C-alpha cells in the first residue's frame, strides 16, 4: 500500500471577532477588509496565519528555542538574531520548517490548510441560529446521501421558521439535524440551532453579517480623536465555527544532515502542533488583538 500522510481535522470556535487583514487600506464599505476565498468570496483564515501563530506559541514552550526558532530563518546581526537552529532534533524547526540561507532548508512536516467557515452565527427573531450550506457539509463528508438541497429562497431548519428581520426564507423542510459525530468538539447547542441554506444564500448571509468596527487614534496632547485618524475594519464574528486540516508527514521518510528528523518519532510532531494550537484561545490569531479580537478555541485537541 502506498504511503499516506496523516490528516488531522480541527474545529475551532471564535471566542472573539477574528480579523486577518489583506494588508493596507481599501476603498469600499470598510477601510480594512479581511481575507476571502477568491471563488466563493467567503471569509477565511489563511493556513499561513495559523501555521505562523502555532509555530510561535509552540516555540514559547520549548526551553532555549524562543525567539530563535519562532520567527524568520535568516540571521539578523543588527538585532543579534541568530535565526533558525535547523537541528534534526528540534521539534519547532522540524515540524514547521526552517531556512538557514546557505546552510540549507527544510519544508516542515506539518502542513496547514486554510480555515473555512462551517457554522456562521446570525441573529433571528427566534434567537441566534448558526447557518451552514451543502458545499461545506460535502467538504466535511457530513452531507447525507439523498438529502434535498434548499433553493435560494428556502431554508432547512430543525424547527420553526427563519426570519432574520431583513430576510425571510421559506421553510423547505424541518428535519435538518447535523450529525454530531462529524463535528468533533462542536457544542451541541450550536448543532441544535443549525440551519441549512443554499450555497448562494450562504455567501450573501455571511458577508452581510460580518462584524464591522470603527476605531480612531487618540491625540495624546488633547485626549481627543486625532484629525483624519478614523478607520473601519471588519471581522469574522464571535461564535463562528471554522475547520482546518493539518497534514502530518512521517519523519522516517526524511533526512536532516543525514539523520531522521526527531529520530523518526511522529508523536513529537503532533505534540508540537498541539502545544501551539492550545494557546490560540488566550493569545489569539490575526490582527487587532489589543482591540478585543483574535481569540480562537480549537475544540478537539
Task: Give a verbal description of the structure.
It is a single chain. The protein has 301 residues and is of the alpha+beta class. It has a domain at 6-27 and 43-114 and 237-298: Alpha-Beta Plaits (2-Layer Sandwich), CATH 3.30.70. The chain is built from 7 helices and 15 strands. The two termini are 29 Å apart. The mean pLDDT is 89.
Largest sheet: 8 strands, mixed
Taking the alpha carbons of the first and last residues, their distance comes to: 29 Å
Rg (CA only)? 22 Å
What's the CATH first level of the domain at 6-27 and 43-114 and 237-298?
Alpha Beta
Task: Name the CATH architecture of the domain at 6-27 and 43-114 and 237-298.
Answer: 2-Layer Sandwich
Percent helix, as a range, is: 10-25%
Number of strands: 15
List the SSEs and their pairings.
Elements: E1 6-14, E2 44-45, H1 47-60, H2 91-96, E3 98-99, E4 105-106, E5 110-112, E6 115-124, E7 127-132, H3 134-139, E8 154-156, E9 162-163, E10 168-173, H4 188-192, E11 194-196, H5 199-208, E12 211-215, E13 231-235, E14 241-248, H6 266-278, H7 280-283, E15 296-298
Parallel strand pairs: 7-11, 8-10
Antiparallel strand pairs: 1-14, 1-15, 2-6, 3-4, 5-14, 6-7, 6-14, 9-10, 12-13
Helix pairs in contact: 1-6
Amino acid at each position: 500500500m502506498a504511503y499516506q500522510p496523516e490528516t488531522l481535522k480541527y474545529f475551532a470556535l471564535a471566542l472573539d471577532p477574528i480579523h486577518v487583514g489583506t494588508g493596507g487600506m481599501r476603498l469600499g464599505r470598510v477601510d480594512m477588509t479581511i481575507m476571502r476565498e477568491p471563488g466563493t468570496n467567503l471569509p477565511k483564515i489563511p493556513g499561513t496565519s495559523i501555521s505562523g501563530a502555532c509555530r510561535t506559541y509552540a516555540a514559547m514552550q520549548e526551553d532555549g528555542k524562543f525567539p530563535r526558532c519562532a520567527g524568520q530563518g535568516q540571521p539578523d546581526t543588527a538585532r543579534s538574531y541568530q535565526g533558525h537552529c535547523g537541528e534534526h532534533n528540534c521539534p519547532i524547526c522540524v515540524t514547521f520548517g526552517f531556512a538557514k540561507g546557505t546552510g540549507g532548508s527544510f519544508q516542515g512536516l506539518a502542513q496547514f490548510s486554510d480555515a473555512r467557515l462551517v457554522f456562521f452565527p446570525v441573529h433571528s427573531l427566534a434567537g441566534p441560529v448558526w447557518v451552514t450550506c451543502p458545499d461545506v457539509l460535502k467538504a466535511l463528508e457530513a452531507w447525507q446521501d439523498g438529502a434535498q438541497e434548499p433553493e435560494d429562497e428556502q431554508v432547512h431548519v430543525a424547527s420553526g421558521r427563519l426570519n432574520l428581520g431583513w430576510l425571510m426564507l421559506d421553510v423547505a423542510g424541518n428535519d435538518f439535524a447535523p450529525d454530531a459525530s462529524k463535528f468533533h468538539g462542536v457544542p451541541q447547542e450550536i448543532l441544535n440551532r443549525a440551519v441549512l441554506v443554499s450555497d448562494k444564500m450562504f455567501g450573501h448571509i455571511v458577508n452581510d453579517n460580518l462584524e464591522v468596527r470603527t476605531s480612531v487614534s487618540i491625540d495624546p496632547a488633547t485626549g481627543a480623536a486625532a484629525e483624519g485618524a478614523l478607520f473601519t475594519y471588519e471581522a469574522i464574528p464571535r461564535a463562528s465555527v471554522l475547520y482546518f486540516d493539518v497534514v502530518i508527514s512521517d519523519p522516517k521518510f526524511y533526512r536532516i544532515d543525514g539523520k531522521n528528523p526527531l529520530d523518526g518519532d511522529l508523536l513529537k510532531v503532533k505534540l508540537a502542533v498541539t502545544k501551539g494550537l492550545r494557546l490560540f484561545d488566550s493569545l489569539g490569531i490575526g490582527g487587532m488583538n489589543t482591540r478585543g479580537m483574535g481569540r480562537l478555541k480549537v475544540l478537539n485537541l
